Amino acid sequence: MSQSNKAILEKANTAIMRGDNEGFLSHCTDDTIWRFVGDKTLRGKEAVRQWMTATYTEPPKFMVENLIAEEDFVTALGKITMKDEEGRDVQYSYCDVWRFRGGKIIELKAFVIKSEEQEGRE
Q: Where is the SnoaL-like domain (predicted)?
């Protein structure tokens, strides 16, 4: 089960990098919950859709350093680069803990911070 969840997440993330938000969302349950620790919680696929539309004005770029799967969970560690409001690339370090139910993403707990390398350039 854990390896199939890992493959599902890889496929979903590939959709995001192609700018295919709906392709990503097809891997989520309707009642998915995304928690951005220290920030906000999104409840339901529609809330995630709206957030993705507003946040991913251009597809983000992921560099996954580790992908660890066990039972219903997949943990991804890496870096993500996204455009800010001024159109500049900003890099973040992240740790995402994804929970699956029936082969779909039911929950995300995301720890995201601006990368130190980025902060040194400001």
A: 12-107
